[in-house]
Amino acid sequence: LFSNSDTLSERLIEGGKQTGEQLWRLPLGEFYDKQLNSEIADVRNTSTGRGGGRITAAQFLKRFVKDEVKWAHIDIAAIALAKSSLPICPNGASGFGVRLLNQLIAANFEV
């Protein structure tokens, strides 16, 4: 989980505890932001080095969202396909994040 908002992060982490789709918050950083610089374009959409793909994806989003807008990037690539059954899903397409986002909306935005 990457986010520019402590409140949104806390709500997502709490939703993850309730649904079994647990998250932890990771930092954004200038080092990874610099990897998006390009000599031929306004910005790259991948990092220039090895690793850091999750962070550079979040840094990429950060460049296009105004500071006053609360946002979160949840990287689901590693869990999108479960190789074996998990407590929250059978093997195959996991649907990770669907329960989490449903919980977030139900707990914080529905009346």
Note the topology:
Blueprint: E1 2-3, H1 6-19, H2 30-34, H3 53-64, E2 72-73, E3 81-82, E4 92-93, H4 98-108
Antiparallel strand pairs: 1-2, 3-4
In spatial order, strands of the major sheet run: 1-2
The tally of strands reads 4
How would you characterize the largest beta sheet? 2 strands, antiparallel
Strand content: 5-15%
Query: Which structural class do you get from the secondary structure elements?
Result: mainly alpha
Provide the low-confidence segments as ranges. Answer: none
Radius of gyration: 16 Å
**Share of helix, binned:** 25-40%
Protein model, in words:
This protein is mainly α and 111 residues long. The protein has four helices and four strands; from the N terminus they run βαααβββα. Helix 1 (6-19) crosses helix 4 (98-108). The radius of gyration is 16 Å and the shape is globular. The model has no long low-confidence stretch (mean pLDDT 86).
Name a few traits of the molecule.
7% strand; single chain; 4 helices; 4 strands; mainly alpha
Concise synopsis of the structure shown:
With 111 residues, this protein is mainly α. 38% of the residues lie in helices and 7% in strands. The radius of gyration is 16 Å and the shape is globular.
